[in-house]
Specification:
single chain; Rossmann fold; 4 domains; 30% helix; 29% strand
């Protein structure tokens, strides 16, 4: 085999990277704590290890050192960077990884470098939370864990005192140091952006507009490409995104940025040293931009020069998540019908009869997704709406 690639995290999101590596005749090693994870089953070598522990990950790779390393999860970012630094590989540094996995540190850097982001405070108790809320001007506010874990874990809107305790405990649950970040609640048009950074030069591949599931939680219901922002405001949005990833020290990596646009400007929410999750890298970005995103990520981690041309204008695509009412699942109808519809790029339902549909609190509680394409965003949206309407979820005793 030509080269050896290590991928930290063996979820289904890792599979497109594994397939891309194998297509290039690279040996693919996948690290995950769960031997039965979907990506582990497709690896040339499956290594069972706690991906949250950089030293253990490095030690596990000693018998077969990689030429490049990638991760598809925030849980693997620090280990990826530690291995890069230890073995002299191309990719994010430990400092950049720390910047992207601690929301306090992230915001401090953005404030110090003139990047527009939220005002915030850190609470270790509900009483501290009340003081921070007062210092921010009162409700509404956002509670979230300081640690970056992806999937909207622990994130919620708090609009009154009787929601505070629940929100605090929800955020604290996902932070390894039990710290809760409380920040201003900016209501505007929210976006996610896919970015690559090579040799200090960021390129924004695509920007979406996002629709959230019902509050108080902050889970994406629909991610719609391309953004409706245009003209001078679009150029400013691009500049803000590029400035944000450079401020965090990201280089030779894919990056995922969450940002909000309002009439008075832009507010950065998060940035990650990885691509967007789910179908983003494998299906959506290749369709919208014409760029093979998994191949580009492989090139980045190997330090290879990237030569690509973005589609102009970008194509339109809707990433619609299925969020049926909670309860025991008896049966699901319409999935195959939707899969066979023209311009449906993906349709998947994650649960099987007998499983329980969860209330939507985090991204992991969603039941499935549809990826619908169209000549325009309006056309793609109509197709996504039609496809979602054809899927019937039947609950036990309903």
């Amino acid at each position: 085999m030509d080269k050896r690639i290590a991928i930290i995290g063996g979820s289904t999101t890792s599979i497109p990277l594994i397939r891309a590596a194998k297509a290039k005749n690279y040996e693919c090693i996948v690290l995950d704590a769960n031997l039965n994870a979907a990506g582990m089953k497709q690896a040339d070598r499956a290594v069972v290890v706690d991906i949250n522990c950089p030293e253990r990950c490095l030690h596990s790779l000693a018998p077969f050192p990689p030429d490049g390393i990638l991760t598809v999860t925030d849980f693997g970012v620090r280990s990826m960077a530690f291995i890069n630094d230890s073995l002299g590989l191309t990719g994010p540094t430990p400092q950049a990884a720390a910047n992207c996995t601690n929301k306090k540190r992230m915001r401090d850097i953005w404030h110090a470098t003139g990047c527009d982001t939220t005002q915030y405070g850190i609470a270790h108790s509900p009483d501290e939370a009340k003081k921070i809320i007062a210092s921010l001007g009162g409700f509404p506010v956002i509670f979230k864990p300081v640690r970056s874990t992806g999937g909207s874990r622990g994130v919620s809107v708090v609009k009154k005192n009787d929601q505070l305790w629940t929100a605090f405990n929800f955020a604290k649950k996902y932070d390894n140091k039990r710290q809760v970040l409380i920040e201003e609640y900016h209501q505007g048009l929210e976006h996610s952006a896919e970015v690559i950074v090579q040799n200090g030069k960021p390129i924004v591949l695509a920007i979406s507009d996002k629709v959230k599931a019902p509050e108080p939680y902050r889970v994406d219901k629909s991610v719609d490409y391309p953004t409706s922002v245009h003209g001078a405001k679009y150029e400013k949005l691009i500049q803000t995104i590029c400035k944000s990833v450079l401020a965090l020290g990201l280089d030779w990596t894919a990056a995922h940025v969450e940002i909000c646009s309002k009439p008075d400007g832009f507010y950065l929410f998060e940035a990650a040293a990885r691509s967007g999750g789910g179908a983003t890298a494998s299906t959506i970005i290749p369709y919208v931009t014409g760029v093979n995103y998994p191949d580009v990520m492989l090139q980045l981690c190997l330090g290879e020069k990237i030569d690509m041309t973005l589609a102009t204008p970008p194509k339109s695509c809707i990433y619609r998540f299925l969020t049926p009412p909670s309860g025991p699942l008896e049966s699901i109808e319409g999935i195959n019908t939707v899969r066979n519809m023209k311009n449906i790029l993906e349709c998947d339902f994650y649960l099987k009869p007998g499983d329980t549909i969860q209330k939507i609190r985090t991204g992991m509680d969603r039941s499935g997704h549809i990826v619908a394409a169209g000549l325009t965003r309006a056309e793609a949206t109509l197709l996504a709406d039609r496809a979602e309407s054809l899927i019937r979820v039947n609950h036990t005793n309903s």
